[in-house]
């Protein structure tokens, strides 16, 4: 027996004896129904569970997101039954104790993201997860956290940007003592962080991934954040328009190499009637007859919100949406908030109803049919249906939003006519120069045909092939523009050369198309900030309050003329 | 730590709310003079200044009612107020019972604290009384209500005998005999199906009644104009003295030559003699709208007498010169309200804006592939007079495929021969927002006006289109 062996046996003995003597440790059997944090991240399934867990918690932010972004904006108003807190939020008179200005819910998710990211790092270091699996999961949660920070920046202005996990609960309670990052600095940090992510493909998890499955009748493909969309948004807020356009264009062309049913329909905004792959346009079964409007959660424009996430037609519009299931928690909070038969806290404002009524449909019907497809009118009150159709989903990113944001970026980048095309009548009808037969484009030469391609180099984000004749079908030939899909008349062609004018029209279209979906307040802040024109925001809020008969409308306008008052107080002292 | 304090503060404030709530509600609901030991009958019995009314209550048996477990409100006239009561009421037990019941209502009514707050209360004789501030109909409520265990007792300074309703007053009156007799003759007898014995059902599932079933009288005026017997409603009703009735009927005789009393000139006079609400003679405006929507030109000087009925007010007039333009009105037949079609085709009921931004609805039948496709229309009870006929049809507006001019035709039914005859040819030029004058038309007889809108005799698209916003009929009156 050599010395080494002696030492080893002594050590074993020592270890064993410690085990037997310290009774406390022996009795401290780990419980089986609780997971200790050290044991939480052992294999890929644990990592997947962490991702799903984060998204489950994230979904609880919908109520705050919709209320902060829509009720503070001008498209949603309070009802006679709204709580005092919501009335304050709507009229921009929130007190510090108002629960809807509390940033804590956002940070509760952020803290968990930080923790999960740290553990993913550890799993990669310990070889418990492959680099490929790590790249996707890490990038996903990191992008989600960035999205939440973007929200915080929009709502609160300056906020603490924390990316490391907390060691104790006290750290969370002392969060207010962290240094604050201004909104502008925050955008820089988020752009740098997201550009450096290891996985930035169009979809978070490719086909075959353990996180791309169908579960309880829902596909998980679009359950996760779209990173290119987020990057586009960050660049758009920052004012880097070409980079914004590049990221948006990446998604617009995401299915270009797939089969015809995919490449012609996915993210193209068309009014093609194909029951399986498209069919999301406003339709009338009898032309010019308003009673024949297709008002169904299964077909036509309203189906954007009502179709199940497993169908291709739904997938052709959405990039990021989280369905609610009445059988499980969380329950869709909008069911309660929007229904006059329940607590009925929010309703469409008079301002958005007037805006819809000021449009004219292509068939002469004197209002925008999207109004009827966005809310129901009854003697009990107007009920927003967009957020609750077929149980509802929290939809954040979709193709119409993508096209409007792309157009906004392109317009600011000097491509105003391109923005006009996506807004109104689509690419080929805007750019085509050539022969018409009976009102239809009928190119008689290759030169004429090629005018249907947008006049940019192939590697430009502004290059779109929308050619169509009997021989050639360009990927973008069906794209018809947002207003044509909604069957409303295009705006005047003079906007093709009017940058600021078109920018206003794009935001107006966002109201018509995306009302109640949670984009309004950020849209108003972004444009008012960019144009250095507080009245862009203040006048719209003023009109909402005025039309609702709020006597403080003028003073609220005055208040919002100061950009400092756009942001909620970041108050951690409650 | 702060959270703990918050909880204490919350508890404290909640408990404060509870305490203060209790007090406030007590103040709100507090009733003075409550005596829960006796009932209304006993309360009335114990008061010397309403002993006469108490006597009536006992002799009519209402003392048993007022001693029951249900809650009542009693407005008791003082002895002084009953001194001048019509002896006929006291002498007749039926009238006396009605008189007492006219002062009692089921349920407890506190005095309203809001000024001019009107309460219309159903009394035990099924009449209604208006209570405005401290007035029970025309009598004043003296002092506060005396609450006992089954209700409240008020004292009033005047007796309030029950009134006739408008219908009964009209029938009992001799101020407008022609009008009364005409309306009364509109009665028909129908089987009282609620009380008749059913002995079987016929093939259509309708009941067969036993021979000589009980019959009840129904007046068509109740259905076609207003049920003047309804106590819960309030109407102003005009009765025309015979001369006025005769002249007004004569004025309409040519236009409404129907032999059916329900559609005769007399009917077209009396249908516009009832107005919703009560307008006393001193507050009559110069024009009122009848329940059938026709303007009634009024002159206070023509009111001969007025009667306040239980369900409104009746004015007897010596003249009520209706304007012929109101009685033989301009009317429109809307294109989007057709009766039927000659074939099943896709019909567009359109909502569009005209050149002035005003919304209108119309009908369009486009590319229907039929020659002489027709849309049928009908208008009931059209007065016989010569009409100027105008049409409005707008083509070529936003979204409309019909951009070329086209011709459509109107065929009117001749009831005598039961054939549709070509009456007007209508050239529709695109974007014509004004009316097009088609020509004159005079119905052969009083009754339904039937016509059809017929497309060109071709199956060609853009040529056989039909569009109609409306046809406007303007009577040519003297």
Can you identify the CATH class of the largest domain in chain B?
Answer: Mainly Beta
Topology-level CATH name of the domain at 41-211 and 223-397 in chain A? Serine Threonine Protein Phosphatase 5, Tetratricopeptide repeat
**CATH third-level topology of the largest domain in chain B:** FAS1 domain
What strand line-up does the widest sheet of chain B have? 2-1-7-6-5-4-3
Architecture (CATH level 2) name of the domain at 41-211 and 223-397 in chain A: Alpha Horseshoe
Helicity of chain A, as a percent range? 40-55%
Residue windows where pLDDT falls under 50 for at least 5 positions of chain B: 12-23
Shape annotation of chain A: globular
Estimate nothing, just give the exact number of structural domains of chain B. Answer: 4
Intertermini distance of chain B: 93 Å
| Computed Rg of chain B | 33 Å
List the main descriptive attributes of the protein structure presented here.
heterodimer, A: 574 residues, mainly alpha, Serine Threonine Protein Phosphatase 5, Tetratricopeptide repeat, two-stranded antiparallel ribbon, two-stranded antiparallel sheet, 26 helices, B: 478 residues, alpha+beta, FAS1 domain, 4 domains, seven-stranded mixed sheet, five-stranded antiparallel sheet, 29 strands, elongated, membrane (chain A), signal (chain A), SusD_RagB_dom (chain A), TPR-like_helical_dom_sf (chain A), SusD family protein (chain A)
Describe the structure in your own words:
The complex is a heterodimer of chains A (574) and B (478). Chain A has 574 residues and is mainly α. Chain A has 26 helices and 10 strands. In chain A, the strands form 5 sheets. In chain A, strands 1-5 form a two-stranded antiparallel ribbon. In chain A, strand 2 (214-215) and strand 3 form a beta hairpin. In chain A, helix 24 (520-530) runs antiparallel to helix 25. Chain B is of the alpha+beta class. Helix content of chain B is 22%, strand content 33%. Chain B is built from 13 helices and 29 strands. The model of chain B is unreliable at 12-23 (pLDDT under 50). Classes of the chains: A mainly alpha (574), B alpha+beta (478). At the A-B interface, loops of A face strand 20 of B.
